[in-house]
Amino acid sequence: MNWSHLEYFLAVAHSGSLSSAAKRLQVNHSTVARRLEKLEQELGIRLFDRLSHGYRLTEHGQALQRHAQHIDDKITDIQRMFRGRDTALSGTLRISKPDSGILNLSPLLTEFHLRYPNIDLELTAAADFSNLNRMEADVALRLTDQPPDTLIGRQLGRLPLRVYGHEDYLKRCASLDPAQLSWLIWTGSDPDRSIEAHLKALVPDARIVLRTNNYSELYEAVYAGMGVSLLSPLRVPQGAPLRMLAPDRFRVDIGLWLLSHSDLRNSVRVRAFRDFASEQLPALLAG
Questions:
Q1: How far, in Å, CA of 206 to CA of 56, rounded?
Q2: Which residues have C-beta within 8 Å of that of residue 74, sequence separation ≥ 6?
Q3: pLDDT in tens, 93-118
Q4: Residue 283 pLDDT
């Protein structure tokens, strides 16, 4: 059996679709389909039920997933162990950031590159912490107030969120009573990425007219005058026709953590970025 087929099998098993697996593996979806067919032919069994809404593991597929995942975990452990022994301030550092788009790391990464020009940076966006455990990233910046115990890291500060609305929208409103406004919120698949709970704590009867998992779309909707939302003052351009509402009343701050796997604690590249981010980001968060 070609062991490389297992990587494709696990990607589909985790994501439930060819397109999601192909995106994760950075290949064409037809390549994923071809690898799965070859694996099924080599084993002489059917691993997935091909459904209209995606791929579902058969009993044989579930059994293979348990064994293949064990192999994949061992390979990851080996990679992490030796990657954690890197002693050169050169090579590639893989950084993960929230996939919502709320964090602009360009100023930070530019300054880091100027200080460490021999370290090549690879930036990806992810929704959760799994890419650290799978060795798809060396360090991750995450918005959370409860980081996993399985990872090590430090809190760099808190990301401020305040209520903004376009000046024209606010002029059209008969009342600025929060319950009478149209609310737009940034949401996510886990509580740390969802603003709805924070909003409900501030305005229990808020009328939510738009939910999106993309911060850029949220900002554009506010800018277009669709309603008001909790936005980061750090991402509101100077001179934008947006007005902040009752900043003393409407305040939400989310913890920003820099995290990595414990096996990489001795990597000099990880240590350099961790120290640099700890030095630079608190000032950026303070505005």
A1: 39
A2: none
A3: 999 998 778 888 998 999 999 999 99
A4: 80
Global pTM?
Answer: 0.66
251 vs 38: CA distance, rounded Å: 55
Q: CB under 8 Å to 280, separation ≥6 — which residues? A: 108, 111
pLDDT for 213 equals: 84
- How far CA 166 is from CA of 203, 238, 285, in Å, comes to 19, 14, 23
Both tokens of 230, joined, read 């909790």
d(CA 21, CA 87): 33
Match 């950084």 to its residue by tokens. 95
HSE toward the beta carbon, residue 99, CA cutoff 13 A = 13
Burial of 88 (0-12, 13-18, 19+ CB in 10 A): exposed
Alpha-carbon dihedral 246, 252, 258, 261, rounded to 10 degrees: -160
Determine the 3-state secondary structure of 106 from DSSP: helix
Q: What whole-number distance in Å separates Cα of residue 27 and Cα of residue 21?
A: 9
pLDDT above 90: residue 260: no
Q: What percent of the chain has pLDDT over 70?
A: 89
Average pLDDT over the chain, rounded to an integer: 86
Residues 6+ apart with CB under 8 A from 3: 71
